[in-house]
Amino acid sequence: MQGKMPWAEIRPRPTAGRAHTEVANLDDQPTERGQRLSRAAAQRLSLYLRCVAGWPADEEKVSSGRIAEAVGVSDAQVRRDLAALGHLGQRGVGYDARELAIAIRTALGINRPWRAVLVGVGNLGRALLRYQGFRAQGFEIVGLFDSDPAKVGQAVEGLTVESIVGLAERVAALGAELGVLTVPGETAHAVAEALVAAGIRGILNFAPVVLKLPRRVRLVTVDLAIQLEQLAFQVQHGDSATRPTDDD
């Protein structure tokens, strides 16, 4: 996004009829057996799901050992994580692959479609729009917004870029619950506040800033520079770098 955002023109508007139920916090996510699902466990479940979904469809049974080997955790950790989802596997037999995938998707909250809007139709935003994995996992980008008048009205990946000024009304009309933030750091706070005021319940933030949002709104930040810093640290220190334990 280029140019100064016309935030003075944006006014929070009522979002009557929109659900404002708080998104479940992954640190306090109930499972079928009443246990709590931590963020670390949720991240591992996503990896387990990738493995199971990527294996041949005719394989009806999968073992905890095979999942553990593919993901790089212990067999015991896999069994503990999956035990929190209910009575899925049989000792000596393994897990029914289809049943396991359904249970993991339910635990992660992706057993239904999620509609999202993307704010910031620059290079990163356009690259994300071309990524087919979102739709495959049930995430649909339904609206694009930018403050640059030169971009408003452009067609990008089948969607028309809209002015940020109409964000509140359009979020409600589109039924979006999630927001993807791909704006410069200096404007990220203002955009995030506008998304929250519009009724967005969770934000995926790619801006290199730390956002402070109301507790009812969930936030995941992807700072690519930090990820490279962590990679550099691991390469620099090699085996001396502390590896996370299974339960981290």
Topology summary:
Layout: E1 29-30, E2 36-37, H1 39-54, E3 61-62, H2 64-71, H3 75-83, E4 89-90, E5 94-96, H4 97-108, E6 114-119, H5 123-129, H6 133-136, E7 139-146, E8 155-156, E9 159-163, H7 167-174, E10 178-181, H8 185-197, E11 202-205, E12 218-221, H9 224-237
Parallel strand pairs: 6-7, 6-10, 7-9, 10-11, 11-12
Antiparallel strand pairs: 1-2, 3-5, 4-5, 8-9
Helix pairs in contact: 1-2, 1-4, 2-3
Descriptive terms for the model:
248 residues, Arc Repressor Mutant, subunit A, Rossmann fold, 3-stranded antiparallel sheet, globular
**Which residue ranges are poorly predicted, with pLDDT under 50 across at least 5 consecutive positions?**
1-5, 7-34
CATH topology of the largest domain: Rossmann fold
- The proportion of residues in beta strands is 15-25%
SSE ordering: EEHEHHEEHEHHEEEHEHEEH
For the record, the CATH class of the largest domain is Alpha Beta
Strand order, sheet with most strands = 8-9-7-6-10-11-12
* Helicity level: 25-40%
The biggest sheet amounts to: 7 strands, mixed
Oligomer: single chain
What is the number of helices?
A: 9
What count of structural domains? 2
Radius of gyration: 20 Å
CATH architecture identity of the largest domain: 3-Layer(aba) Sandwich
CATH H level of the largest domain: which superfamily?
Answer: NAD(P)-binding Rossmann-like Domain
Number of strands: 12
Tertiary shape: globular
Mean pLDDT across all residues, rounded?
84
Q: What distance lies between the first and last C-alpha atoms, to the nearest angstrom?
A: 37 Å
Broad structural category: alpha/beta
